[in-house]
Amino acid sequence: QVQLVESGGGLVQPGGSLRLSCAASGFTFSIATMSWYRQAPGKGRGFVASISSDGGTTNYADSVKGRFTISRDNRENTVYLQMNSLKPEDTAVYYCTPPKFGSWGQGTQVTVSS
């Protein structure tokens, strides 16, 4: 079955950086589009970024464009989210997902606060 394990979250000050990782298994990772979503306290889960199977096409939510970068390593079945210039409004639980399969991991908490 599809398994997704997110890691790399934590507490960071505004303006800081974090790199999230998501290790995937149970499906053919190299042909799957992968996405990151986030859910802030009291809000629904929202799209952050996506990357095509070969890494050649990426898409971002307007709120993170220019600050976040999604990437992947198909040899390691891992997708990454590099987050720079973090803001308090980026505080959320971050999830990765292969949209085609509708599966979710446990998420990783990111807290941006001074």
Architecture overview:
It is a single chain. The chain is built from no helices and 10 strands. It has 114 residues and is mostly beta strands. The strands form 2 sheets. Strands 2-10-9-4-5-6 form a 6-stranded mixed sheet, with no helix packed on it. A 4-stranded antiparallel sheet has the order 1-3-8-7, with no helix packed on it. Strand 5 (45-51) and strand 6 (58-60) form a beta hairpin. It is globular and about 40 Å long.
From the N-terminal CA to the C-terminal CA, the straight-line distance is 40 Å
Shape: globular
Helicity, as a percent range:
under 10%
Count the beta strands: 10
Q: Give helix and strand order, one letter per element, not per position.
A: EEEEEEEEEE
Give me the Rg, rounded: 13 Å
Largest sheet: 6 strands, mixed
**Mean of the pLDDT scores?**
97
Helix-strand category: mainly beta
Q: Uncertain regions: pLDDT < 50 for 5+ in a row?
A: none
SS element count, helices: 0
- Spatial order of the strands forming the largest sheet: 2-10-9-4-5-6
Strand content: over 45%
